[in-house]
Amino acid sequence: SQQNKPGLYSLNEMLISDGLPIFLSRSATSQSELVVTIDKNGGYFTREKVIEKARLRTEMTNRLRTKPSTDKVLFVKADPVIKYGDFEDLYYEAFAAGVTAIYLDIGERTIAWADQEIAITLPAGWHKRDYENERFSLDGPDQGRLKIEVVTSKDIQVEKNVEADHNVALNLQREGAVDEVQYLLVDGAKGTLTRRKAKPGRPISLQWVGYRTWKGKQQFISILMDISPNDRVDRQQELMNILQSTHLSALKD
User: What's the CA gap between 29 and 233, in Å, rounded?
Assistant: First the structure.
């Protein structure tokens, strides 16, 4: 049956009519949040102890009793190979306990862009959208978007171009278009990072532009990410973690 199948492939088909919203996300950022872990054997745990399935509702109700309805949120850390039924059982008990939303963390995975031999590690909720020889795009939670573009040339002067890119970014900062500018190495490749904080009607944005040597040629690389803010998840840090996970050095000449 579906309940005994491994994996959470069918989250969008859960047979719970009154549905709690499920957000794919990293785990809680605060120690005060309610967190339940499901291991690969179907065991349930909080940060402090093992919870028997029969006591899930009671434990969650007690932990959430003093919280306002807007804060009755459950963070779930789950092994990606857990049985669907183990998550569904927790979902039902959370609904009965008064939970209003679930943030689900099923760990990270690495996605490779074979054409350019670039790999990037992403938290739950990010997935490949489309790609071609010099452009690679992914979509993520909270309207997240990640785009990598490359331009290959024999004539790039890395040091000169890095300085020019940095000066352009500083001008954008002076004009108020970005909030932060800094030099940054990504897996040993030199480049410039710009960051833009969220404002009403404007997402968090991060862009890194830099250079690597690949198959005997110099290559310009742009990594652009933006995402809507979320009070319960540090999206700014999430984007930085994604950027710093990018693998380039093992593939350079």
Answer: 7
